[in-house]
Amino acid sequence: MLEVRDLHAKAGDRQILNGIDLTVNAGEIHAIMGPNGSGKSTLAGVLAGRNGIEVTAGSATFQGNDLFALEPEERARAGVFLAFQYPVEIPGVNNAYLLKAALNEVRKYRGEPELDAMDFMTLIREQMKLLEMDDSLLTRPVNAGFSGGEKKRNEIFQLAVLEPSLAILDETDSGLDIDALKIVAGGVNAMRSPDRAMVLVTHYQRLLNYIVPDFVHVLSGGRIVKSGGKELALELEDRGYGWIETEPAAV
Amino acid sequence: MTQVATIADSYAEQFGRFKQQTALPGALASLRDEAFSCFERLGFPTTRLEDWRFTNVAPIAETAFVAQVAQSEGTDHTRLDFDALHLPRLGGPELVFVNGTFAPALSTTDGLPAGARARSLATVLAKHDVDDEDGAEAVASRLGQLARIESRAFTALNTAFLRDGAVIEVPPGVVVETPIHLLFVTRSHTASVLSQPRVLLVAGENSQVRVVESHAGDGETPYLSNTVTEIVAGDHAGVDHYTLVREADAACRVGSLHASLGRASNFSSHTISLGGAFVRNEASVVLGGEGAACTLNGLYLANGRQLVDNQTTIDHAQPHCDSHELYKGILDGRSRGVFNGKIIVRLDAQKTDAKQSNKALLLSEDAQVTSKPQLEIFADDVKCTHGATVGQLDEDSLFYLRSRALSHEQARQLLIHAFAADLLGHIKVEAIRRQLDALLLERLPVGGA
């Protein structure tokens, strides 16, 4: 589904990614771990098309198409979803309005009929229950005045409604208390499917207790320096990142 | 110089003819003479005047506009194309004026409650000599009381050519539930029309009324719509006023609104500017009774080379009065916005609470805005705050929306709408709010070239 080859990228003047190779197949969950400044969020951002990141070498294909040739909205319609580390507050834009507009754009792309307000409400009921979203969060402006946990739940709620093929979760666990983490993880686990792939970007192993990955990759200095199964995350939890950085890169 | 002299001659000659053709009651006849000499003495304002520092009136001063005097003008327009003129349909009492002249065939007063009156000024003044059953004397004596001619050239010019307009009277205790629509349409197809309607709104004690002034026009010839509105809100009255500016692309507008508020009255004004090459909106409110409250809101969209200038003066003359002022501009192309917000707190006006805020959203590199708050505070126990911001669309917000499958254009429109959302929320006339919602979500109007 996603093939990243020798990806180099700059954010501003700084070279952040120095040759990433990553293959993600449908049905798989990959965790990308690494210390601060290793390039995790840049990797998530460049895949979603965040402005300010320049690809200097390498490629990424999504379902066979050149990902970098697509505008952010084209990637979203084609099935790439980024759950933001810091969801943006947008006062004056109604949360439900945005979600309905987003869903209808995706449906249009898929050749499905657009939903009216009634059908939309019916459709999102289940996901609201799953993420324990209060009705008031729908009518409020996007993320404005939401608590940290509410913002992250809102991201996963959007994920659940939009049903992308590839979900990239950027530090979705950061700042969540244990209750909120369980709700968010429950939402993500409910989205697991043989047709869908997920990339979890996280600093800590804690999230992986609740969302068990198939593969774990360690990012350091803008490259994947170690890959393994879920047990690698536990090892990192025990030993920290220091030992990885001193080992020769394993590709 | 020659050109300016020629234009001054043109107004003098037009005024001479106008006086011959249009009889006015004695007091008003001398008011208009006085007004014309004020206008001649003042001339059009220059950028040397503080209140005109950022606004050059050359497009007006250098055009030989033709003051509309003929009664016949306008009455032959049996239909108005609301959609083409971008006018809201309010479905209540509606007085229509074409080139400043009342068009009875297009107007209706259906829906006015007993006692409330909405009439054309020309009709009121015509009855003056017969008897005073219709209160013409009272109307005549009010005109020019708030809109002073001594230092304002455009008000003087409007007053000199005083002839027609709208007079709305709401007696004490009467509540007018449906908004009264005053529709001023300028049609300028051949000559450069000068349309100068006058509005007088007198809301009696404890009455309530909502008035919408729509100013629109068509035709490619530049015209000048120079309007003056005087509003008297009695004690405990509630007046909600809207000025909707949808002038034609080539048009110039100068509109001044003057309001005087009685004790514990509540006045709100919403000035929405969406069209016209040169738009100057002046609002001046005197909080003249204890406990009065005033809201001055403004929203403008400008594009192309449009200029939109909002000048406000709020005069806290009595204690315990509140004023809230919020103006927002959305500027694209090479358009310019000017905001000048004056707040005066007189010595006696203790416990004043005045808030002023001015925000501008610039959508292009070439758009410009100038904001000037002016606070003159003479009392010592008051709360006065003001703030001004200028910004662009937030890149992170744009990316967030695009990552949710919205096109760049959709994301942009959604953020533009969001910028204006709080002002839209204050608009109580649904037809106007719906129109603005659609306009802001769909596209920016194409402004004057």
Number of domains of chain B: 1
Helix percentage of chain B = 10-25%
CATH class of chain A: Alpha Beta
Going by helix content, strand content and strand pairing, the class of chain A is: alpha/beta
Largest sheet of chain A: 6 strands, mixed
Task: Let me know the CATH homologous superfamily of chain A.
Answer: P-loop containing nucleotide triphosphate hydrolases
- Are there runs of chain A of 5+ residues with pLDDT below 50, and where? none
**Tally of strands of chain A:** 12
What is the H/E order of chain A?
A: EEEHEEHEEHHHEHEHEHEEHH
Specify the biggest β-sheet of chain B: 11 strands, mixed
Could you tell me which chain pair has the largest interface and how many residues each side has? A-B, 30 and 24 residues
Structural class of chain B: alpha/beta
- Please tell me how large the radius of gyration of chain B is: 21 Å
Query: Between the first and last Cα atoms of chain B, what is the distance in angstroms?
Result: 27 Å
Report mean pLDDT of chain A, rounded to a whole number. Answer: 92
**Strand-residue proportion of chain A:** 25-35%
Count of alpha and pi helical runs of chain B: 9
- Could you list the spans of chain B in which at least 5 consecutive residues all have pLDDT below 50? 444-449
